[in-house]
Design a protein that fits this description.
Blueprint (H helix, E strand, L loop, with lengths): L2 H6 L9 H9 L2 E5 L4 E3 L7 E7 L2 E7 L2 E9 L4 E2 L13 E4 L3 E7 H10 L1 H23 L6 H7 L3 H13 L2 H17 L15 H71 L11
Antiparallel strand pairs: 1-8, 2-7, 3-6, 3-8, 4-5, 4-7
Helix pairs in contact: 6-8
Length: about 290
Amino acid sequence: MKATPLLRSIALFDGLSAQDLDALAGALESRTFAAGANIFTQGDSGSSMYIVEHGEINIFLPDGQSPGIALRTILPGEYFGELALFDDKPRSASALAGSDVLLYELPRATLENYLEHRPRAALAILRTISARLRETNALLSSRAAKNVNEEFEKSLSWGDRLADVVAELNGSWKFILLLLGFTLVWCLINTGWIMKSPLDPYPYQFFNLALAILVGLQGPLIVMSQNRQSRKDRARSDGDFNVNLKNEMNIEILLREVGELRAELKSDRAASTKKGYPESIVGQPR
């Protein structure tokens, strides 16, 4: 996988032209790490983002002697550490090579130099960031769970409702029994036993024509209902994704706060021990 397609797959650079992407890809630095190597540790000063070409990166919160709290696994084509491009704050988590990896590193200085020579690219990146922030704010400020069935029912037209009724009726024993009963009655009426001059004598050409028209109308109506059901399923899947995304964001916030709380308690315990306080009272509420 080349650097330019990798950059094109990153939402941060959606607004860049092909020429800008090629120029930025040429400024990336390739780095390799063996399995088990630390890319960076929580609390380190960061100034680069990384794009994974192949291999896996495990993002986690360190937890003393334990392996830590796993946050996410970064796969090929994904990126991490992008916040370091825009602020000077320490890394909020640690990154460990889960296998032999090849990364493309984008230092902040390289991006700044690139944007100085291409101010239009800076505006495109800012527009992308602004759009992503608006989407995130909208997701966090609104309820992600929605009743998809209720919303679809409100937007149905009479044609949509008719298609649903036809599709539901055609898939039932009621329709089969009604069609068989109507066919039997029609044949009895037009055999000559009841009427001397039947309207549609054997071989029942008018009845065959009516059946052909019925079949011709049933097909499009059923397909219309199935297409709308597919749209409803996609909307339901999108709703489930938004719910899962919001839950994931909240869980990541909770994990980060728990990690910060543990680090603070550990720091307080170390400071209290150094001052000579008994181990039994260290970490108790003050």
